[in-house]
Specification:
By secondary structure, the protein is of the alpha+beta class. The chain folds into 2 domains: 136 residues, no CATH class; 401 residues, 7 Propeller (Methylamine Dehydrogenase, Chain H), CATH 2.130.10.30. The strands form 8 sheets. It has a 4-stranded antiparallel beta sheet, with no helix packed on it. A hairpin with a 4-residue loop joins strand 6 and strand 7.
């Protein structure tokens, strides 16, 4: 807490210098004196309480205090609000929201500002069941941040991490020579043996970047910086790296055409996507999905299968790939807040809670009740009729999961990962209509993740559930090599609260609220330290990765 306040103070000093013209000499002197006093108080006494720090914060001019609050995370805001009633409520502000007749505290003002920036409608009336504005807004802010940031990701044999300082690390095996570790200097340098990195290791070229989110497929990776920049590396086929060519990159390279990005996603068959701060969706990569089928247009006309790889663009018959990020024009009237790429299809969530799907739909993965493909985005009417607001989606090889604001999980598509499967129907069975996953009962889900043939979910209580049919059964974390047909809690993590997870077909990763990363599955991919023959084998239950802490968002 103290370290966070000191960092915010340094940033506030920089901001105040830029805005010096708007302050009188007396105000500037008063603000600088308060900053010096607070720093002097905090530095020699790192164990000082939040209430004492809050009391000193109140001596700052409103403009400087607002800058400091804007730079604090949800957890720090919650602690400050709980320590000082002036920050919580009943506090006058220079310009309170006109729709509010009551006085609004500074923390609530900051949380409302964040919601507005994200395009979220807060309103002037507390939702049913909410007792106070600050806890309600803190919860929304935390959930929105969790959806936006992913501190770890898995590929086919490798893992990617964002540590507590925002640095990018990788580990595992580069099985197909796609330079997925991000460390090689020569993108064409391939040896006879796959490159192995035992413990998670810093990516040298990214040490001066602060990363907030990562994503990975079997062949390429993306990383999102705190400045909204996107970096890509790995196999470059079909322009999946977004760098205007089909050349692979061994080290992360910035996608210059993207800026102010908030979310990133990758697909298992050469597709990528990004969402910027204004809610624009960009996609790029392979445009053609090599499968037979039919395409249905908006008027219900069914014709020959042409382009349906989930890019969402109107493409001519000669177009094989999109080499640079391109905005999905069909969603220009929507503000996209979430995206998931499956095998040949895409789903997008809007700030209004609507879910759109487009791409290949042979296994019912588009959720429209049929097996036809849709080239341009179409809203899933079945979900709209439920009257619920959806906040997140996840997609794999033919299966889809969608999460409501109230924590209810819906699944459809291939039985392999939609949460409804049974051994009798698991192979070759499809669920074409979205249906609630009954296995969770009254438990509220806060995060969902999907890979080719597996899925995972984290509940509000910090419980991790996994299910699916991965290539390595131990990647589900249940201590055996068997597939799991319905969501099952990972008992090996019952002593911790899980805050993030990524489950692949060879291994799984989970981070708890103390930033510790737990790994299970194929031993050589886990980052547990060994990279030689002794690492070959299976780690059947979650095991903490030594020397690694990742950046997770703790509950307030």
């Amino acid at each position: 807490m103290v370290a966070t306040l000191l960092a915010a103070l340094r940033a506030a000093e920089r901001e105040s210098q830029l805005a010096a013209a708007s302050f009188s000499d007396e105000q500037a002197a008063e603000g600088l004196a308060a900053i010096d006093e607070l720093r002097a108080y905090l530095l020699p006494r790192p164990a000082s309480s939040s209430s004492q720090a809050a009391a000193l914060l109140l001596q700052l001019p409103f403009e400087i205090l607002s800058v400091i609050l804007s730079m604090l995370g949800t957890r720090e805001l919650a602690r400050l609000a709980a320590s000082c009633r002036f920050l919580w409520s009943d506090a006058p502000t220079p310009q309170p929201p006109p729709v509010l007749l009551r006085q609004v505290g500074l923390v609530e003002t900051e949380l409302r500002r964040r919601a507005e920036v994200c395009g979220l409608d807060v309103g002037s009336s507390l939702p049913e069941g909410a007792l106070s504005w600050v806890p309600y807004l803190l919860k929304r802010d935390r959930r929105n941040a969790q959806m936006r940031q992913a501190p770890l990701a898995v590929g086919h044999g490798h893992g990617i991490f964002v540590d507590t300082e925002g640095r990018l690390l990788t580990c595992g095996i580069d099985m197909d020579g796609d330079a997925l570790m991000g460390h090689a200097e020569d993108p064409d340098a391939h040896s006879d043996e796959p490159r192995k990195i035992g413990p998670p290791t810093l990516v040298p070229s990214m040490q001066d970047r602060r990363i907030v989110s990562v994503a990975s497929s079997s062949t390429h990776c993306l990383a999102l910086s705190a400045d909204g920049e996107v970096y890509s590396w790995g196999n470059g086929d079909y322009g999946v790296l977004g760098l205007d060519d089909e050349v692979g990159r061994a080290v992360p390279c910035r996608i210059e055409s993207l800026s102010c990005i908030e979310r990133i996603a990758v697909g298992p068959n050469d597709t990528s996507a990004a969402v910027d701060q204004s809610g624009k969706l960009f996609t790029w990569g392979g445009a053609t999905y090599l499968a037979e089928g039919l395409v249905e247009d908006e008027d219900g006309e069914v014709g020959a299968f042409v382009h349906s790889n989930g890019l969402g663009h109107e493409l001519d018959a000669e177009t094989v790939c999109q080499l640079t990020p391109k905005r999905v024009a069909a969603l220009s009237q929507e503000r996209v807040v979430g995206v998931a790429l499956g095998y040949g299809f895409t789903l997008a969530v809007t700030d209004a809670g609507a879910v759109f799907s487009f791409g290949y739909g042979e296994q019912g993965e588009l959720g429209h009740g049929s097996s036809t493909s849709v080239e341009l985005p179409r809203r899933i009417k079945i979900l709209a009729q439920m009257g619920q607001r959806f906040v997140a989606v996840a997609a794999g090889n033919g299966h889809v999961l969608a999460l409501t604001e109230e924590g209810e999980l819906y699944g459809w598509g291939h039985e392999g990962g939609n949460g409804h499967g049974s051994e009798a129907t698991y192979r070759g069975a499809y669920e074409r209509t979205p249906r609630r996953v009954a296995a969770f009962g009254r438990a509220r889900v806060k995060l969902v993740y999907a890979w080719l043939s597996s899925s995972s979910a984290v509940t509000e209580e910090g419980e991790l559930f996994t299910w699916g049919w991965p290539s390595v059964g131990t990647s589900l974390g249940h201590g055996d090599d068997e597939p799991q047909f319905e969501p099952k809690r990972v008992e090996g993590l019952s002593s911790v609260k899980v805050a993030a997870a990524a489950i692949g077909d060879t291994h799984g990763l989970a981070a708890d609220e103390d930033d510790v990363v737990w790994a299970f599955g194929q031993g050589s991919t886990l980052g547990l330290g060994a990279s030689g023959p002794e690492a070959i084998g299976h780690v059947r239950t979650p095991t903490p990765i030594p020397t690694l802490r990742v950046r997770v968002l703790n509950s307030p």
